[in-house]
Write a structure and sequence with these properties.
The chain contains 4 helices and 7 strands. It is an alpha/beta fold. β2 and β3 form a beta hairpin. α1 (2-13) runs parallel beside α2 (44-60). The chain is globular.
Length: 179
């Protein structure tokens, strides 16, 4: 079942070129390590569509598409510990977050884990990195990585992020061990 879903997402999002997406249409979760618990009989395809939407919205830097991934009454805490409530406030906040990012900036979904708590509630963790982000003064900031911890809910057949805590694991000031 997991292989069928991964293959469907691969076809849906188009193949990646040379292992790295060059456009949002080339993004795919097919090559992203994932861990899924209690998926049997649950809407895993819908959950993966939400994670894929997250990946595409970050890649494009599209505040509207990003905010539309959240429930109307969602709660979001960003990496700077700012709490934001509601889809529209999340949208307004991310207009400035995404504005002026250089073309060299890339956000990547590194891995994800998903656990169905009920058929309509999922606990998830999405590990990400951020490459070549420009600071307010125009300098290129160090590469960063973190984890997006969330509760997803299915409302009227659609999956949304309901509660999110975005945690910075490395702000670029820590040495990263060689792989």
């Amino acid at each position: 079942m997991t292989k069928i879903i991964a293959m469907s997402l691969y076809v849906l999002f188009s193949p990646m070129l040379n292992g790295q997406a060059q456009t949002a249409n080339e993004l795919s979760l097919a090559n992203v390590p994932g861990q899924i618990s209690n998926a049997e009989g649950n809407d895993m395809a819908g959950v993966l569509k939400l994670i894929g939407g997250f990946q595409v919205a970050l890649f494009k830097g599209d505040a509207r598409a990003f905010a539309d991934l959240f429930a109307e009454d969602a709660d979001f805490i960003n990496v700077k510990d700012k709490s934001i409530h509601g889809r529209e406030d999340i949208y307004q906040h991310h207009i400035n977050v995404f504005k002026g990012r250089p073309a060299t900036r890339k956000n990547n979904v590194l891995s994800y884990s998903v656990r169905f708590v009920t058929p309509n509630v999922v606990a998830s963790e999405i590990k990400w990195d951020n490459k070549h982000t420009m600071g307010p003064d125009g300098t290129t900031l160090p590469d960063r990585d973190g984890v997006w911890v969330s509760v997803m809910t299915r409302e009227n057949g659609q999956w949304y992020f309901k509660v999110v805590r975005n945690v910075m694991l490395n702000d670029g000031t820590k040495a990263v061990p060689a792989k």
